[in-house]
Design goal:
By secondary structure, this protein is mainly beta. The chain has one helix and five strands. The N terminus is likely disordered.
């Protein structure tokens, strides 16, 4: 492999900026430069479309060998989720319990005043 003056092989490509792109666009942008994109912990990543890239490694502009893997982390589109599971989960609380509002603490208790001689 022939080396350039910067010390990088001629087969190197620069990592594109993927942060802010939708998953589908990030994959295409990387593929156009001869890179592969992977999302750790997201086995559904090859089918993910609208989640946005919020972080990447290596950083944009880093020279890497062609066919290298760029790791990305995704999040939902702003305003479209990320709040967790919303359906009820078991076990439900037992039936019964207090049916009325409790009085303020100390209500109905005589006030004791201490005085010194």
């Amino acid at each position: 492999m022939r080396m350039t003056p910067e010390g990088h092989g001629t087969g190197d490509v620069r990592v594109p900026r993927l942060v802010g792109l939708m998953a589908v666009d990030a994959r295409e942008s990387a593929r156009a430069r001869g890179l592969v994109v992977d999302a750790p912990g997201r086995p559904d990543f090859p089918h993910t479309v609208v989640d946005y890239v919020v972080r990447q490694y290596p950083q944009p502009g880093t020279p890497v060998p062609r066919h290298s893997v760029v790791h990305v982390w995704l999040d939902f589109v702003e305003g479209e989720g990320g709040g967790g599971v919303r359906e009820p989960r078991g076990p439900l609380p037992p039936p019964g319990g207090p049916r009325r509002e409790l009085e303020e603490p100390g209500a109905g208790v005589p006030l004791v005043v201490l005085s010194s001689p």
